Amino acid sequence: MTFIADFADDALRLFEDTTRRAGSVFEPSLRIGVTGLNRAGKTVFITSLIANMLARGRMTRLSAESTGRIEAAMLRPQPSDDIPRFEYEDHLAAMTGPDPVWPSSTRRISELRLSIRYQRSGLLASVLGRDGTLHLDVVDYPGEWLLDLPLLNKSWAEWSRESIGAARRPERIEHAGAFLAWAEKVDGTAPMDEAIARKGAALFATYLMDARKAGLSAISPGRFLMPGDLAGTPALTFAPLPEPDGPSGSLARLMRERYDAYRRVVVKPFFQNHFSKVDRQIVLVDALSAIDAGPQAVADLRKAMSDILDCFRHGEKSWLSPIFGRRVERLLFAATKADHVHHSQHNALQAITTALVRESIDRAAYKGARVEALALASLRATVEQTVEQGGETLNCVRGRSIETGEEVVVFPGALPDDPAAIVEASRHGQGNEGWLSEDYGFMKFAPPISAGRPGYGPPHLRLDMAAEFLFGDKLS
Ligand SMILES: Nc1nc2c(ncn2[C@@H]2O[C@H](COP(=O)(O)OP(=O)(O)OP(=O)(O)O)[C@@H](O)[C@H]2O)c(=O)[nH]1
Ligand SMILES: [Mg+2]
User: Fold this and answer.
1) CB neighbours of 57 closer than 8 A, spacing ≥ 6?
2) Which atom of ligand 1 is nearest to the CA of 38?
């Protein structure tokens, strides 16, 4: 019975894949959504995943690979003609060349298709034939743009009040001083004035950039940080006002119209075009950098993630429904850059990441989806080393310092076993008191030298497990 049901399920899925994309029943495509704030690790993840699928020596926990059923993987023309191709070769060459560097911040959207030829197993093989092809489509974009998702649900008045309230919070006020001084003086009911609007937008953008530099995540609009081609356009020339209402022809009305235009012409098309079609999703979270930056940064990361994840909720009647029409079947939360800490810390890192997004998951967001969490490193920049010190054995990592390029051995301290400790401290903490141990801190590592070996993709941690979860079943 189970056997037949499984088969029926698979066959149905294949049929759905086909009808959805008008592709061939024998060559379904799967869209993987790579979601993450800026610097979360999206570009490195996509580059390393592709490289490790092309040369699969390090993909032993991808079952189709370990059972020898993958025949070939290759890059093929992407489905969208109007999106630049993901610069895979350039990113890989930069990360794994003789003088390796990390990719710079992504400034525009891009797409790539990886096609995998494999041998089917089980009943599907006897019905459809042994040879199968799966197309994987992946999109990369600036993480800042993700911060705009919650704006789709917020009116100008709501967003304006919230943004002014946030700017006045203690951890932000030092960055927001100049903007707030402008906002509190300006009269929104006065006739519109382009020069005043431009001044306000510029001060607001400066504040957002400063707040981001301080490690804060819950910042919007995202295009103020990464404007792409939109720099200087009216859609980006607005700022929140303490009194957002004004009569027709007033400054407040102009700002509202521009905020609405920003949502309509910038935000909505981006999410509609790229998120509505996602089948499987990986959410990359750089929890370690936030922990390193302190309780406020963790609280802020939690807020940003929960605002974003709440928008992915399915089955609710909102004007987001047409944007997220399709149900994501699988969702993986991944703590990135796990190579910064010894493997004995990985469970704790995974637990903290889960705790940070727990409430959003629990709000019944992903009913029916399979949800898992994992600590991974897309490009492993360190090796482990134990050091004896004062009769104690310290679990360290060794890698190249990003500043000097020299090898350094680092003991980053221990993450708490109880993830609630971090979440609680971030809820209450204003200062850094009680926040991990004093000597706790990370070091940024440069990518490893000679990461490339024939037959092997770049070194990683659990990238193959992420692949197995995201698309392993489609290679069966
Ligand atoms: N050690 C280590 N560092 C990593 C890893 N992945 C990413 N990083 C670091 O994180 C930074 C950001 O990674 P990206 O992949 O560029 O992040 P992104 O999400 O694409 O960021 P945006 O393009 O700004 O949205 C890199 O420059 C590295 O410093 C990893 O697996 N190991
Ligand atoms: Mg990027």
Assistant:
1) 453, 455, 456, 457
2) 25
